[in-house]
Amino acid sequence: MYAMVAARFKALPDVKRTGLAGQPTLVAFTSEDAHYSIKKAVHWLGIGMNNLVLVKTDPKGRMIPEELERSINMVLESGKKPFFVNATAGTTVLGAFDPFHEIADVCNKHDLWMHVDSCLGGTAILSKNHASKLSGVERAQSLAWNPHKTLGAPLQCSIFIIKQKGLLHECNAANADYLFQQDKFYDISYDTGDKSVQCGRKVDAFKIWLMFKARGSLGLANLVDNAFECASLFTDEIRNRDGFRLVLEEFQYTNVAFWYIPKSMRNDRENEQWWAKIYKITTQIKEKMVIDGSVLIGYVPLPHKKIGNFFRMVVTCHPRPSMKSMMFIINEIERVGESLQQ
Predict the structure, then answer these.
(1) What DSSP letter does each residue of 34-61 carry, written as one string?
(2) Is pTM, for the whole model, over 0.90?
(3) Of 38, 195, 235, 253, which sits 20 to 30 A from 189 (CA to CA)?
(4) Measured between alpha carbons, how far is 342 from 339 in angstroms, rounded to an integer?
């Protein structure tokens, strides 16, 4: 939302004073695999969900730059005004990283604001082995990162970075001089209240500062590398173990998507009814494990890709995972899956 407000202000400088009435109809773009918060943002900011274009993704969940270009041209032909493109570093379900350089090229061509939602995948920047996944995000005008996700900082801990100095204050300030006096004895650029929606807030930045202070860059990198290694081991075990099936052969992040197929169904014909039963079994396994208190793992469908419920295993830095914990999850899914068939 902060990025979208800044982008709107850049596209229509008078919007802060006059509102949206009489202005060109603004249109935003994001991938069909992006986080739902983009839909909430266009609603809350008065842009409207009908003016959010969901750009097609490839089988791995990455935005297709050619589809973005095509969508922008269609909006231009309709007489509306494109203004904002959201790219994702680590989609919620498949952990996909959009092709940032190609998206930046499209945005530059059409003079559009490029934002990167790296709330999940931004943690990869801490690891020399995985930072390359974020290549190209430096070309964006803004970026968001949540250390409370993969890194495991206590909720809530969010970072928003914007490229143009002074823009957040310019587009958000209400100039409340009775709170934000301009003649203070210290550098008033540190007064964040007039740059944001909120006035007062908790010092959530202290959480990530403390993590760096306690562990150092190398310690945090080791945590990230361990999460990636465990996710890779988990994927390999799923790939080679009878009864498990991956949604994708490879994953870009620490998300692993898969199904469990009970022994009684492994030789059956895989038709529509067969898959419907697998989708149902997925929910039943999750329910039983939650009730038993053994494993908490989510499931999710991807309707736009015509895929029903599958397990979504997300490996994070805390509690520190190990191969032992990965194997426990796999064994428990197998155990519960078979017990449901008896």
Answers:
(1) S-THHHHHHHHTTS-GGGEEEE-B-TTS
(2) yes
(3) 38
(4) 5
